[in-house]
Design goal:
Layout (H helix, E strand, L loop, with lengths): L6 H13 L4 H10 L5 H16 L1 H9 L10 H16 L5 H15 L2 H17 L10 H9 L3 H22 L7 E4 L6 H10 L3 E4 L6 E5 L7 H5 L2 E3 L6 H5 L7 E4 L6 H7 L9 E6 L2 H13 L6 E5 L14 E7 L14 H4 L2 H18 L3 E11 L8 H10 L3 E4 L16 E3 L1 H4 L4 E8 L2
Parallel strand pairs: 5-6, 5-8, 6-7, 8-9
Antiparallel strand pairs: 1-3, 1-4, 2-3, 9-12, 10-12, 11-12
Length: 447
């Protein structure tokens, strides 16, 4: 392994690209695929990348006490220090000497003598002086923000929405590793057959408590399974399967998936339709490239005869489809994605309250456009992968207020989760089932 291919060097490179605007999951995937690493090193790189992003605000606060405001620090040098500090604070099994030596060596290999001295000086100063105590921060919101590395505006919004106790429970879980879950493709197999085959391949398989035909897998990556290559399984979070369950599909239904890429829910819908009975899902996405991605996923999962992928902005659907054409419509809307913080930790730093308000307008525009295409007595499901009421309850209230032809339905799921809730809508927070945060609502068209 060369000096630029060590796990720490690969992590620093990926993090530097993420800081420049790249997606963490894509950069990590690229780093792992382009270098031949052992399973241990793959897990280490993954830990370093996601862990450093998850604790970014905390790490930056600590480093700010040892770097003068006027000092210009190159992005990769900052990431080298943050990766080192992350290991010292959060990885008990990594010796401090190894952390310091690798960081200093990386600074030397990639930079010049001045950078090596700078990195050495900062690390040794941290070692001598210790880190400031976050408990001494007087403002409670700022203290929580730095403790859990979550922007203050988001903490305030959650406290107003769910109260302090529930907010603390959410904060305590969002920096934990995301569970790995898969969906059995019932178009070609059964859940029972998938469970047995995965166990035979050496996976630890646990049936989902959240969604039907779903399992959690430990240890090995799901895409390494022969079942993945054969299209018998696909990777999908348990919570993300619930909107399709809420559609109450029938084999011959005509279904519109209005915001479909990359096609996880499209193929989940298609697996429950029967092409011979006329069942079909029309999957829309704004970009031709993403429509092709939906088609590719449909092909891998053997449901192309039930999927029609179309490159179209759902807000412009009047140009393409007649009114009252579909039996079921799913709007899994573009959203802030804050329910996916564990999988895409950088999301929390990228979004602002202004972004949330703009997304609400887009969500309502999509609902207003596609609702015209639903048949009488048809079901419309609106879902998001966020946990903010601005994009969820407020959107539902505004839609119903302007569409008297629709009435709310109680969301039902195969596992009947949260059956004791008082609301028709279904909210899943990350701490509820150790899955992604999700919101699901359903409406029936009366006329």
């Amino acid at each position: 392994m060369t000096k630029n291919q060590t796990p720490r060097a690969l992590a620093v490179e990926a993090l530097t690209r993420v800081a420049g605007g790249a997606y963490s999951n894509l950069q990590l995937e690229q780093a792992l695929e382009s270098h031949r690493l052992s399973d241990v090193d793959r897990r280490f790189v993954t830990n370093l990348v996601y862990g450093t992003i998850q604790h970014q605000l905390t790490l930056e606060y600590y480093l700010s006490k040892f770097i003068k405001p006027q000092q210009k620090v190159l992005p990769w040098v900052k990431m080298t220090l943050m990766v080192a500090l992350y290991q010292e604070l959060y990885l008990d099994r990594v010796p401090k000497r190894a952390i310091f030596n690798e960081a200093i060596q990386l600074a030397k290999d990639r930079g010049h003598e001045g950078i090596r001295r700078f990195v050495t000086g900062v690390l040794h100063a941290i070692d001598r002086q210790g880190l400031p105590d976050l408990a001494q921060i007087k403002d409670p919101i700022e203290r929580l923000s730095l403790q859990y590395s979550v922007p203050t505006w988001l903490i305030t919004a959650l406290q107003e929405q769910v109260g302090e106790d529930k907010t603390m429970q959410i904060l305590a879980t969002i920096n934990q590793p995301a569970a790995q879950s898969i969906r059995a493709n019932v178009a070609v197999t059964t859940a029972e057959a998938v469970q047995a085959a995965l166990a035979a391949e050496g996976y630890q398989v646990t049936p989902s408590q959240v969604a039907a035909n779903a399992f959690r897998l430990d240890d090995k990556a799901a895409n390494q399974s022969a079942l993945f290559a054969d299209g018998a399984i696909t990777i999908q979070d348990e919570s993300a399967m619930l909107p399709v369950e809420a559609l109450q599909l029938r084999p011959g239904d005509q279904v519109l998936d209005a915001c479909a890429a990359p096609g996880g829910k499209t193929t989940q819908i298609a697996a429950q339709l029967d092409a011979h009975s006329g069942g079909k899902v029309t999957a829309l996405d704004l970009h031709e490239k993403k429509a092709k991605l939906i088609e590719a996923n449909a092909e891998r999962l053997h449901v192309t005869d039930r999927v029609d992928a179309v490159a179209l902005d759902a807000r412009k659907i009047d140009d393409q489809f007649p009114k009252k054409q579909f039996d079921r419509i799913l709007v899994d809307a573009p959203c802030s994605g804050l329910g996916l913080i564990r999988r895409k930790p950088e999301i929390r730093y990228e979004k602002t309250p202004q972004d949330i308000q703009q997304l609400q307008r887009v969500q309502l525009d999509i609902l207003n456009a596609v609702s015209k295409k639903l048949k009488p007595n048809g079901i419309l499901v609106y879902s998001t992968c966020t946990i903010l009421d601005t994009e969820n309850d407020e959107v539902v209230a505004q839609f119903l207020a302007t569409h008297p032809e629709f009435s709310p339905m109680r969301v039902t799921t195969a596992q009947n989760i949260k059956s004791d809730r008082s609301t028709d809508t279904l909210k899943i927070y990350p701490d509820d089932f150790d899955s992604d945060g999700f919101f699901v609502s359903a409406f029936r068209r009366q006329k």
